[in-house]
């Protein structure tokens, strides 16, 4: 392993928790696994996270149920609540933890969306965030008045316009006095049939307005985050070299956008598995992977790449000998990888499984086994600290492998180890999410702020 | 057993009178604070109110005025879902411009968080300014649009059968795809594929409340509205309107604006002061066609008893100023109605449907139900 300098020797580890609403990482089949829908499950997870002094509790969004080749995908956890509504209820049973709602910009109107997010921010006392996503498929559009109407590039253009409009709506309300400004945006910027004009009603929260997260990985997505977001929710949370390369890339983009390089915080999604000994932890991790990838799930994932129903195949046998029947992924809709080249994936997978002698299921387990941290509480704490102090990340957005108990050993065992190392807070120092994450003033309110450095020449 | 007379109460902001915020002297941050909201709803629950409504509109009552501060209603209702245990929670959400798919998920999520106490006051928007806020042209026929939106929201609430989550370890299936349905709704101005992203709410269908005339009759032979609210310049008109509304919905109640005598001012004096304080340019005048009561608490008790005797199912009270009128309602009006066995406080754990005497509907897509009925 390369030794990386600890460029931020006093940096602290930050945690968020990603309550996955639709996924195959949450092991629903385990007897310990509770309801994925009952409010009590969400409440237990958020309370545990708050006990563990986490920055934030995070909900994703997907506006159409996943399908495999035209039929509902039936193997994974599915059926999530509307994020803002659920977080508003959770705001009433928590005091400090941040509440992050993933909301897409393609199928929401800024008038509604900005108001709902700001309502959450005000009711929670300044703890809300908006994870801006663009929903990269037209198929979701069938659930909405507008239909599937924007391609990839246009989605980011609209995203920027929606975010600008939302900020204008939030900033229209004065800190004091009675004059609320009217917000007007050309319809062409928002891709609406007519021009948009709004008189806002939502006052500012203690943190001004919701913190902005962004999740997206393409160059356009990274540039969007660099220009507009406070936190980027990345997928680079398993391999340190990869995380460092990602950090260097986004920081370069942040500086190019005229912001200080530490202005955008990096929180990759990851998972943490701890055991009493390193061997314990490894064995538990192996067990977790094998539970996540059931025989049916393995066949479904491979079948998606091959573009056909492989449920008749033996999951403990080899990959299909023939090439995929489709050019591009698309059979499984609603997952992040749609659009990749199937033949390339198939060739790579075949080479790995032949070299390592892996069955279909073993291969899928191997592919999904690259994520996260495995070890004793002490070795994991050591590693997480190293990640933030080398500057690879600012925090981690943890996906528990079981709900609702999946954070217990992280809060009870890893957090104290981090605290002993001086790498984790021992109490919330502020009341707002902006304060927990260590963010500057909202971007739109910085004109007079002294801490904005001039862009690097 | 007959269903008790229901008491709805609007808990929006400072009160229903357009000068309530100004008269209360609340700054915007206080006006919309979660603490204040939770306190008002708890007070209503303790007083035995059947359900609270959260009146809402996207645009301010007086454009440009900070005293028009207001938070979105479903978010408000969700917030208090965990600070209460018995009272029904009925946000007003419009049918005219928002996405029906989002509304269906938001309201289903409210019902889940509230353990079956959710409702929906389905509103319509007649101002062209709201169309402009969405960057759209005005909808000409808002009642027809309301019908389509209520219809598709109801369809979406049924898209998951109650037992769609099977968690079948043997086959690895989390859901039974045969118990999740695509409504493929085709309305007159939009279509929705489905299914919903959120499972069927605890009540099966949230209680849909609407003002008489806001939702056009369905082209399908289904009752779209559970509780219709009517107005009326006098009691006889209101009673007749409620009677007429029952043809289209199982329950009909009267919207009733109330201004009660205070400790040191009569209702008439209070109202005169409020009317004089209405901000310039206010969009919604006091007196929107609801029945009105001004006076002392005992007179209101008599009026409510009279409405019940005339066959009206309940009322929704619109207090002029929440901080002044709610304490009087809680102390002098609601206990008297309960003592007379006219009303009953909702029980912790009861759904709003239970409190209103409405059955939990069968799922429209459940083939097994259809067989059982045939
Ligand atoms: C870590 C991560 C999490 C994401 N979570 C969601 C989500 O919850 N809902 C959603 O619609 N899209 C989600 N996305 C998708 C992105 O918003 C975006 O639409 C997609 O990545 C395509 O954009 P890109 O090409 O810039 O990556 C996520 C993406 C990443 C990288």
Salient structural properties:
heterodimer; A: 457 residues; alpha/beta; TIM Barrel; eight-stranded parallel barrel; three-stranded antiparallel sheet; 14 helices; B: TIM Barrel; two-stranded antiparallel sheet; 13 helices; 35% helix; Luciferase-like_sf (chain B); monooxygenase activity (chain B); FMN (chain B)
CATH class of the largest domain in chain A reads Alpha Beta
Kindly state the percentage of residues in helix of chain A. Answer: 25-40%
Range of helix content of chain B:
25-40%
Strand order of the largest sheet of chain B: 1-2-3-4-9-10-11-13
CATH topology category name of chain B: TIM Barrel
What count of helical segments of chain B does DSSP give?
Answer: 13
The CATH superfamily of chain B is identified as Luciferase-like domain
CATH architecture grouping of the largest domain in chain A: Alpha-Beta Barrel
Number of domains of chain A: 2
Shape of chain B: globular
Protein name (chain B): LLM class flavin-dependent oxidoreductase
Organism (chain B): Xylanimonas protaetiae
GO molecular function (chain B): monooxygenase activity; oxidoreductase activity, acting on paired donors, with incorporation or reduction of molecular oxygen
Keywords (chain B): Flavoprotein, FMN, Monooxygenase, Oxidoreductase
Give a written overview of the molecule.
The complex is a heterodimer of chains A (457) and B (374). In chain A, 37% of the residues lie in helices and 13% in strands. With 457 residues, chain A is of the alpha/beta class. An 8-stranded parallel β-barrel of chain A has the order 1-2-5-6-9-10-11-15, surrounded by 4 helices. In chain A, helix 6 (219-228) packs across helix 7 (240-256). The model of chain A is unreliable at 448-457 (pLDDT under 50). Chain B has one domain: TIM Barrel (Alpha-Beta Barrel), CATH 3.20.20. Chain B is built from 13 helices and 13 strands. Chain B has helices at residues 20-24, 28-31, 34-46, 73-81, 100-113, 128-133, 142-157, 235-245, 267-276, 297-309, 322-339, 352-356, 367-373; strands at residues 6-10, 51-54, 88-94, 119-123, 165-168, 173-175, 185-186, 191-192, 207-211, 227-230, 251-260, 291-295, 314-319. The model of chain B has no long low-confidence stretch (mean pLDDT 94). The complex binds flavin mononucleotide.
């Amino acid at each position: 392993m390369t030794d990386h300098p600890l460029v931020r020797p006093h940096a602290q580890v930050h945690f968020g928790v990603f309550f996955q609403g639709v996924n195959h990482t949450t092991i629903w089949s385990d007897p310990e696994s509770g309801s994925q829908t009952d409010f009590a499950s969400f409440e237990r997870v958020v309370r545990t996270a708050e006990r563990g002094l986490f920055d934030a509790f995070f909900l994703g969004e997907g506006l159409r149920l996943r399908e495999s080749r035209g039929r509902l995908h039936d193997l994974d956890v599915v059926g999530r609540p509307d994020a803002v509504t659920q977080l508003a209820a959770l705001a009433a049973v928590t005091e400090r933890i941040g509440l992050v709602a993933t909301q897409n910009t393609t199928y929401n109107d800024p008038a509604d969306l900005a108001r709902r997010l700001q309502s959450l921010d005000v009711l929670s006392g300044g703890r809300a965030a908006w994870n801006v996503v663009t929903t990269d498929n037209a198929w979701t559009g069938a659930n909405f008045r507008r239909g599937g109407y924007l391609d990839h590039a246009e989605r980011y253009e609209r995203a920027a316009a929606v975010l600008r409009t939302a900020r204008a709506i939030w900033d229209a309300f004065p800190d004091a006095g009675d004059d609320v400004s009217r917000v007007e945006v050309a319809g062409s910027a928002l891709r609406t049939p007519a021009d948009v004009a709004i008189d806002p009603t939502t006052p500012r929260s203690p943190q001004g307005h919701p913190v902005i997260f962004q999740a997206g990985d393409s160059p356009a997505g990274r540039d969007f985050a660099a220009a507009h977001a406070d936190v980027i929710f990345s997928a680079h949370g398993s391999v340190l070299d990869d995380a460092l390369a990602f950090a260097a890339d986004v920081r370069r983009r942040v500086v190019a956008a005229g912001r200080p390089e530490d202005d955008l915080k990096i929180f990759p999604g990851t998972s943490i598995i701890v055991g009493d000994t390193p061997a314990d932890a490894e064995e538990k991790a192996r067990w977790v992977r094998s539970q996540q990838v059931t025989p049916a799930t393995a066949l479904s994932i491979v079948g998606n790449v091959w573009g056909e129903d492989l449920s008749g195949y033996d999951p403990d046998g080899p990959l299909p000998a023939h090439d995929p029947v489709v050019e591009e992924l698309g059979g499984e809709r609603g997952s992040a990888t749609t659009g990749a080249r199937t033949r390339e994936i198939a060739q790579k997978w075949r080479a790995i499984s032949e070299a390592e002698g892996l069955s279909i299921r073993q291969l899928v387990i191997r592919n999904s086994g690259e994520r996260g941290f495995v070890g004793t509480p002490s070795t994991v704490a050591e590693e997480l600290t190293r990640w933030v102090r080398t500057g690879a990340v600012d925090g981690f957005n943890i996906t528990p492998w079981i709900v609702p108990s999946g954070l217990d050993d992280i809060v009870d065992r890893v957090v104290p180890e981090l605290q002993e190392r001086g790498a984790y807070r021992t109490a919330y120092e502020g009341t707002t999410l902006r304060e927990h994450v260590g963010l500057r003033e909202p971007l739109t309110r910085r004109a007079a702020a002294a801490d904005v450095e001039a862009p690097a020449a | 057993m007959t269903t008790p007379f229901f008491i709805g109460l609007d808990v929006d902001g400072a009160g229903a009178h357009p000068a309530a915020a100004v008269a209360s002297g609340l700054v915007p941050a206080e006006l919309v604070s979660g603490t204040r909201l939770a306190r008002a709803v708890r007070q209503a629950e303790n007083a035995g109110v059947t359900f609270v409504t959260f009146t809402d509109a996207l645009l301010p009552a007086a454009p440009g005025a900070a005293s028009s501060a207001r938070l979105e209603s479903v978010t408000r209702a969700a917030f208090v879902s965990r600070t209460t245990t018995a009272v029904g929670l009925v946000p007003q959400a419009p049918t005219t411009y928002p996405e029906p798919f989002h509304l269906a998920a938001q309201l289903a999520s409210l019902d889940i968080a509230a353990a079956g106490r959710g409702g929906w006051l389905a509103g319509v928007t007649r101002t062209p300014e709201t169309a402009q806020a969405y960057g759209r042209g005005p909808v000409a026929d808002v009642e027809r649009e309301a019908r389509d939106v209520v219809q598709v929201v109801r369809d979406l609430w049924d898209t998951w059968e109650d037992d769609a989550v099977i968690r079948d370890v043997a086959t690895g299936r989390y859901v039974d795809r045969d118990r999740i349905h695509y409504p493929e709704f085709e309305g007159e101005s939009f279509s929705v594929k489905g299914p919903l992203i959120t499972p069927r709410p605890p009540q099966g269908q949230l209680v849909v409340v609407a003002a008489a005339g806001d939702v056009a009759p369905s082209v399908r032979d289904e009752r779209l509205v559970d509780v219709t609210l009517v107005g009326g310049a006098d009691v006889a008109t209101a009673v007749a309107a409620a009677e007429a509304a029952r043809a289209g919905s199982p329950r009909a109640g009267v919207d009733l604006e109330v201004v009660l005598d205070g400790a040191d001012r009569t209702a008439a004096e209070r109202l005169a002061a409020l009317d004089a304080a209405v901000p310039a340019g206010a969009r919604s005048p006091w007196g929107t066609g609801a029945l009105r009561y001004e006076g002392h608490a005992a007179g209101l008790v008599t009026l409510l008893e009279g409405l019940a005797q005339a066959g009206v199912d309940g009322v929704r009270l619109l207090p002029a100023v929440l901080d002044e009128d709610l304490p009087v309602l809680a102390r002098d009006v609601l206990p008297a109605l309960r003592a007379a066995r006219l009303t009953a406080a909702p029980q912790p754990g009861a759904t709003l449907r239970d409190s209103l005497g409405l059955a939990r509907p069968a799922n429209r897509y459940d083939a097994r139900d259809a067989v059982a009925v045939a």
